[in-house]
Write a structure and sequence with these properties.
alpha+beta, eight-stranded mixed β-sheet
């Protein structure tokens, strides 16, 4: 017998023995989840999650993640779930970081179940889809009002595996209290006709508006507008009218390795309040916008096949509404975009797609702006997103690093976790919102996958759709003859050269094109922070944990310079510049 055949036979024998042991000790695992009789509800659809945690310092639902501290979680779709029928987790239910319940290593665990509830939407495209509606929390499954969850219980996993147990959904996440208006900050909400038509139900957009000093005393003033893009804001952040709370117990930020970061944040917010009141500080309106979708905590601020016309709704409905209500200038020369990460991509994308409606973008650590560097994947040429190409070995593609290059998770990790939290791009996670934004709509009404979520194999037809519609670097190069004059002086990009998610790679590629432009030259700025992680925003003087708290003020001098250089003849440059 040839050596290769011997190897195959031995492998089959070993596999048979493993399967036999598996069937004897773990094949009958059943975890039954029920809804308490005390909860009165109609039949529910959604994603049912079963979560294990090593310790009880926080509820298991708050400990799910993809990094080195990842805790086991398993997920399954349910339909028509009521207190009259149980749902059962067995070995076939997919999980992360263990794919099966049978793989969980021995130990003591705290276990919790949660039902992320889906609603049915009748889209204007003719499709019917089931998705989680935002309920004021910013599309967070672990804290979305109305979701059901259980009281955590403790179990022991022995060397023989998990013994069958039951768990009861006996609690409902309560409603969230909306923020209240103050002297400085106002909160608005408006129904979007464009989005309501697309989704087949009322859809609202919101914003937190920071008023300038002297707003009421100067009714003649009309103000420029600064639009802060980014993840869902529960209220206007980084603005505090009083010094830090003297009784605040200092916390520790593991991300920045800084003790008392909560006190630093309060001090920076108070410093901004004082700066906002200085006689020579420019008088602007600043808004933080709320535009969560059934796929994520914000829409990515552009039109898309599966999410609808969010770009048009924000630019042509929400922003004019705010400007009318709070005396904005209401002209493209007076509007500016800025933000980091998701907000960085949004700031640049909105500027590119609506070049006449805004006068400058300041994009910090943007999500991939060139899909040849979709982090470490070239979606046009690579065959697989999870493994580097090789004939004789498989090396997983990293997904997250620190400034020294230490890797804590891979692209596969992030995607497999999302696959547990929700199929059909419904996890509320990062890769899924990119698909919900960039992908064509599938025949089932959900976004088409860029790659197989389990294997990582890339669909290059979908990649081409991404390229033509959302690859910002490609779009600029393709359309520079039309966009160049409109965008001259408006593009400013900042990124750390050790960004945790390798986002600097795409910035390098866009910079190469921008610096090659001659007709016209882009006349903007691309800058990098040495050894800086996510989310560096152009500040060479302060560490990242400080500069990230100063978005609202750090671009003001550049905005003022841009206004003075580019405002059209007859523009109002005086009414808002009182002391």
């Amino acid at each position: 017998m040839k050596p290769a055949y011997i190897f195959i036979v031995l492998s089959l024998i070993l596999l048979w023995n493993c399967n036999s042991k598996f069937s004897e000790t773990t094949s009958n695992i059943k975890v039954n989840v029920s809804i308490s009789d005390s909860i009165d509800s109609k039949p529910l659809d959604g994603r049912l999650l079963l979560i294990f945690a090593d310790s009880s310092d926080a509820e298991p639902r708050f400990k799910v993640g993809e990094g080195l501290n990842a805790q086991p979680v398993f997920g399954m779709n349910v339909e028509g779930f009521t207190s009259d029928n149980d749902m059962t987790f067995d070995n076939e239910v997919f999980g992360f970081p263990y794919e099966s319940l049978s793989e969980i290593k021995p130990g003591n665990y705290y276990v919790q179940a949660l039902l992320h509830i889906y609603e049915t939407f009748n889209l204007s495209t003719g499709h019917v889809v089931k998705l989680p509606m935002d309920n004021g929390e910013g599309q967070q499954w672990k804290s979305s009002p109305g979701n059901l969850y259980s009281t955590p219980i403790q179990i022991e996993v022995t060397s023989d595996g998990i013994k069958n147990f039951d768990i009861v959904l006996d609690k409902v996440i309560p409603e969230i209290e909306e923020p209240k208006d103050t002297e400085w900050i106002k909160h608005i909400k408006m129904k979007s006709e464009l989005l309501s038509k697309f989704w087949g139900r009322d859809i609202y957009l919101g914003a937190h508006v920071l008023l300038p000093k002297g707003f009421n005393e100067h009714p003649e003033a009309k103000y420029p507008l600064m639009v802060f893009q980014g993840h869902f804001p529960s209220d206007f952040g980084g603005f505090r009218t009083t010094p830090p709370d003297p009784n605040l117990e200092p916390d520790y930020s593991s991300r920045f390795d800084v003790k008392g970061y909560n006190i630093i944040q309060q001090q920076e917010a108070y410093n901004f309040y004082k700066q906002w009141n200085e006689p020579d500080f420019p008088r602007f309106l600043i808004i933080e916008i709320q535009h969560p979708t059934p796929y994520y905590d914000d829409s990515y601020a552009v039109n898309s096949a599966s999410q609808g016309p969010y770009g048009d709704a924000l630019t042509y409905e929400l922003i004019p509404y705010i400007e009318r209500q709070f005396r904005g200038q209401g002209k493209g020369w007076s509007r500016f975009l800025y933000g980091g990460s998701t907000g960085g991509w949004e700031a640049l994308a909105v500027q590119v797609k609506y070049p006449d409606e805004y006068n400058g973008c300041f994009a910090a650590c943007p999500d991939p702006i060139d899909f040849r560097a979709y982090m470490l994947t070239n979606i046009y040429e690579d065959e697989n997103a999870y493994y580097s190409e090789s004939n004789h070995k498989m090396t997983e593609v990293p997904g997250h690093r620190d400034y020294l290059g230490n890797v804590s998770s891979t692209v596969k990790d992030g995607n497999h976790l999302e696959l547990v939290l929700g199929d059909k791009s419904r996890s509320g996670g990062q890769y899924d919102i990119w698909e919900a934004t960039y992908s064509p709509q599938g025949n089932d009404g959900y976004p088409q996958r860029l790659w197989d979520k389990y294997t990582g194999d890339i669909d290059h037809k979908v990649a081409e759709y991404w390229k033509e519609n959302y690859d910002l670097s490609y779009i600029l190069e393709r359309d520079w003859d039309k966009l160049g004059e409109k965008l001259k002086g408006k593009i400013h990009i900042y990124c750390g050269d050790m960004d945790n998610y390798y986002l600097n790679n795409a910035v390098y590629m866009m910079e190469e094109f921008l610096e090659s432009t001659t007709d016209p030259y882009y006349d903007g700025e691309v800058d990098y922070g040495d050894r800086a992680e996510h989310c560096w925003n152009g500040d060479h003087e302060n560490p990242n944990h400080i500069s990230r708290l100063r978005y609202n003020s750090m671009y003001v001098p550049k905005i003022m310079k841009r206004i003075m250089e580019s405002a059209p003849v007859g523009a109002d440059l005086t009414s808002w510049r009182y002391r």
